[in-house]
Fold:
Amino acid sequence: MIDYKTLYNSDPFGLEIKKKDPWYLTNQKKLCLYHYKNSNNYKLIIDNIFKNISQVKKISNLPFIHTSLFKNFDLISTNRDQKVSTFSSSGTTSSKQSKINLDPKTSLLQTKALSRIFSKIINKDKDIFFIEKKKFLKSRESMSAKGAAIKGFSQLCNKKYFLLGSDNKINFTLLKNYLKKNRNKEFIIFGFTSLVWFNLLKEAKRQKIKLKKNQGTLIHGGGWKKMHDLRVDNDKFKKKLRVYLV
Structure:
């Protein structure tokens, strides 16, 4: 299988495309073959739609799984008796949610990968603010893509804080007090893109709040479907962000 020790000891952004593509193709074929041997549903999909995985010579020809299949089938490649965590998607475009099954080894590897990718931004000396409610991690929603992200980033930082109150409004008092006490301390704010826009920026505008230049780094991801409906692209998002947060 994949040589994970070498992988996690390498610079996540240091491999050239001409070297990365062959490596990616080789290891993706190994993963596809693993799932082919261990999942009857996956095997059925491959046999009916794609050619022999071993014969694939281009990344573009690798078998792919449409997201809708994760909503309609329980795709799992481990022994049914093995402990597995099942995460769900946000389900914003339909009533059905995608189900992603993770075994303990995969969860550990994901945490390691997250740590390596963000190693130059996040470390145990930094605190992190989540644009989410504190009780979120104890709710059923914690077993979602958002929950996985929050749990993953929580393990990489020192202290964690939650900025959303029960009324879904940002607790700017918490953030302001933190900035007063930690003027030179680097910290992280993490949230889904739509939450940053609707909760953080909209509330900052409503309260006429502008946070002076500080040592914070904002990390956001996901939530672009709602932004697309508002015709808010990446450039417009960043422009609005600079008005209130820098």
